Amino acid sequence: AQIRYSIPEELTRGAFVGNIAKDLGTDVAKLAAANLQVLSDSDSQYFSVNVNTGVIMVSERIDREQLCGQNPRCFLHLKLAIENPVEFYRIEVEILDINDNPPEFPSDEVSLRIYELASLGARFPIQPAQDPDVGTNTLQTYHLSANDNFNLNVKARTDGGKFPELVLERALDREFRAFHHLVLTAEDGGSPPQSSKIRITIQVLDANDNHPVFDRPSYGARLVENSPLGTLVVKLNATDVDEGPNGDIRYSLSSHNSAALRQIFAIDEQTGEIRVQGNLDFEEATVYEIEVEAKDMGSPTMEEHCSVVVEITDVNDNAPEVILTSFSSSLSEDALPGTVVAVIHVRDRDSGEQGKVLCHVSPDLPFQLRKDYEHQYSLLTSTRLDREHVAYYNVTISASDLGNPPLSRHTILPITLTDVNDNAPQFEQASYEVLVAENNPVGSVLVTVSAADPDSEQNSRLSYSILRAGGTDPGLDPTRYLSIHPTSGQVTAKFPFDYEQTTYLQFHVEVSDGGSPALRNRTLVHVFIVDQNDNAPQVHFPRAGEDSAAQFQISPSIVPPALITKVVAIDADSGRNAWLSYHLVEATDLGLFSVSLRSGEVRIMRALQDTDASAHELLVVVRDAGEPPLSTAVTLVVLVEEKGPEALQGSEARAADGGGLPTITLYLIVSLVLISTVSLVGLAALGVRCF
């Protein structure tokens, strides 16, 4: 939208310009909530907006002549920006001229020397007055004081300037009057009008009675800007019918020309050729009007004036300019498509098609340009952004004009994406499986879990913790036995494990990042307790005290290989650590008895002889297959005696007891086989899983 206001210059600070809320048809409260901002195209902030009332006010002194010079119309441009959603409003404030400057002559007095034979109608230009105001407030007319010889003629130039000329209406007679004193008044059209005066002293000279005459009253030429130095503009021609010095003509640039024009053009005083001696820039001036005078060499000299109008043709010599009105170099990665990143103003000092500018950005970037209105673009995000994919962009704004060949300019905007916590931590493994030997040292590291978070800084700072999970013992709390370092992820044991109490433990490890809110993830850890040979075999039969031996009686007529007894032992370990072997290490007669390696059966190997002792002491050692092996010893005393009826009954009872031993042995063997099978299957499954 575009709104236009008009105000006079030189208003006081705080003066009312317009009510933007009323003119936009919106509520003042909405403008305040939308973070209303005033953006100016100029370096100074001449206006401000009261967000509580919506009123635009003057904030600095405005001098129209300083801002726009002699341009007939003067404008200041503002842009109002509001957020949620982002909208722009263009405001054009026209600065109206007031009559605050009177016309002023370059000096208070001017002297003219005019030959008495000057022709009627001869014109004598007077340095004009200058009035920086415009329109009706600028210089409008001149008034000449009453006299008998001169009338006033005001010459209007194409640029609107007015030059006074004294026109000789009645012949001069030096002998009658040698000096004429006139007053010239310059007056503007203001209300009330302002004026200034200059005194003109005219000295009437005698002699040279013909002045130079140009072959035409004005000349025209056309040049392209940036023409080389020395380029011929025009060749003037003036003639004087006088002879000798009075007819010898010299050309020069009139004092009416500005100092800047004199630096651009030069004239050859002999030939009248005007050439370029400075830089021609269409953007500074499109037309030059050169005042030239031709003087003869008489005494006094006589002169004639003409004007040369030089039109400048534009060429495409100015590249477009890119001006950042608003820009933020950092952008959150969760910015929605359509978010405004920068507001760009473009301009080209050339004219016509050469001054029209087109802007674009690379289609490979997640940004696009939106044309808000003439000469303004907004840089927007076109897609979702991901800092973890690309964290930094160099966005090149390319501005090209429509000249032939076109000129362009590239502006690079560095944009850094700020991180948001949009990525949860990820463990390197979905689950971990750990083998831990029982009786492990306290504080030993069982496993190190590791996770990664592609976010940055605080959002990527990870913290680990152990959560309770089910295991072989539903009531087992893993935090009672385990601890985890919150930053390294090292899981350590608080107590040694005992395979005979716990064979397997599982728990969850949770990792959370430092974002707000924090994102979390979990992994499952399986801990398998590996058995160690830490339990010696225990003899369950025959039972004997620490310092006593088990006694058995046999008949002297026993027939070998008769079973005397069976040593039964159990090992609380598992696997090879529970595989038992029985050894007869000491005996009164080693050749008389034997012990089965696996079953522990004690048998007599030969018939008893009269020479054999009546009592035999056997030392049986039960050893497991662990590394290193552990063992237990039991002492057996075998008595050789004839049994009476009671003794025989006791022997039969022992025999009955002994008859039950193979059943116990069978149960033990089956149990060992089952335990070994389960252990092997578990280890094989673990090996396959790890592979």
Q: Care to describe what's here?
A:
This protein has 691 residues and is mainly beta. It folds into six domains: 3-96, Cadherins (Immunoglobulin-like), CATH 2.60.40; 109-205, Immunoglobulin-like (Sandwich); 213-313, Immunoglobulin-like (Sandwich); 321-418, Sandwich (Immunoglobulin-like), CATH 2.60.40.60; 426-530, Cadherins (Immunoglobulin-like), CATH 2.60.40; 538-640, Immunoglobulin-like (Sandwich), CATH 2.60.40.60. 10% of the residues lie in helices and 43% in strands. The chain contains six helices and 49 strands. Strands 1-7-6-3 form a four-stranded mixed β-sheet, with no helix packed on it. It is rod-shaped, with a radius of gyration of 59 Å. It starts with a strand and ends with a helix. Residues 644-661 have low confidence and may be disordered.
Roughly how many Å is the radius of gyration?
59 Å
Low-confidence stretches: 644-661
- CATH topology of the largest domain, what is it called? Immunoglobulin-like
Shape: rod-shaped
Return the CATH architecture of the largest domain: Sandwich
CATH superfamily of the largest domain: Cadherins
Strand arrangement, major sheet: 1-7-6-3
Which secondary-structure class do the elements indicate? Answer: mainly beta
Helix percent reads 10-25%
Q: Count every helix, treating DSSP H or I runs of 4 or more residues as helices.
A: 6
For the biggest sheet, the summary is: 4 strands, mixed
Beta-strand portion reads 35-45%
**How confident overall, as mean pLDDT?**
84
- Number of folding domains? 6
